[in-house]
Write a structure and sequence with these properties.
By secondary structure, the chain is mainly β. 9% of the residues lie in helices and 67% in strands. The protein has an eight-stranded antiparallel β-barrel. The longest helix has 20 residues. The radius of gyration is 22 Å and the shape is elongated.
Length: 228
């Protein structure tokens, strides 16, 4: 959360500089209903296993709400700067696996492996550029937090993970009276690969459970808002 507050403070300072230097400024704020489809390819390396790994691919679909605020200026060809925030994105499906130590090695673990988590605090900082009557393109930086919740036979824990990446998209905006507007938008999120290690070391020096993953997602949004 501290990192998110720092980012939002930097955006606020940038918006203030934009307001100061522009003669014609328009503010916009609103709410969005979002649908997201995501893909993950995850690999887990098991401690004290000589590098044994398991791979798993997963698809998920989720819907969530977010809020946004933007500022734009005709002095800069309609260029806009904005920030959006979603407090809750998705609760991941809980997975339980039972492992059995058949080798008799005390360094190996036996029991249920319960993996759970959720994605919260999705922040997007972006720029928009009009490309026609009502149409626009956008690009920006995205960040979210993967909150891990697990109960592993080894007693190991994984720390929460900061997810970061970039997004590109396009949309169309129409008017709803004098000061209101609606918006339809599609975007693609390119997340950086993640890597995290468990808290418990194995019998081999430096050996820990490790998870790496590749992520990607697409999102569609319908929004309504006000302009000032």
């Amino acid at each position: 959360m501290k990192k998110i507050n720092t980012i939002l403070a930097a955006v606020g300072a940038l918006l203030m500089l934009t307001v100061t230097g522009a003669n014609s400024v328009e503010f916009k704020a609103g709410v969005s209903a979002n649908g997201m489809a995501a893909y993950a390819n995850a690999k887990e390396t098991i401690k004290d296993s000589g590098g044994r790994t398991t791979n798993e691919e997963a698809l998920l679909a989720t819907s969530f709400a977010s809020v946004f605020a933007e500022i734009s200026s005709d002095d800069m060809m309609g260029l806009g700067i904005g920030v959006s925030y979603a407090p809750e994105v998705v609760d991941l499906e809980k997975e339980t696996r039972t492992i059995q130590n058949t080798s008799g090695d005390s360094g190996n673990d036996t029991g249920d492996q319960i993996i759970d988590g959720k994605v919260n605090d999705l922040v997007s900082i972006y720029a928009t550029m009009p490309i026609g009557e009502g149409a626009y393109v956008k690009a920006g930086y995205i960040q979210a937090t993967l909150v891990t919740s697990e109960n592993l036979a080894s007693g190991s824990k994984y720390e929460d993970i900061d997810l970061t990446g970039m997004q590109v998209g396009a949309g169309y905006e129409g008017e709803l009276g004098d000061n209101a507007f609606w918006r339809a938008e599609g975007s693609y999120q390119m997340w950086e690969d993640i890597s995290t290690s468990g808290s418990e070391s194995g019998g081999t020096t430096g050996s820990k459970n490790k998870i790496t993953a590749e992520l990607g997602s697409v999102m569609g949004s319908l929004s309504v808002g006000m302009k000032f």
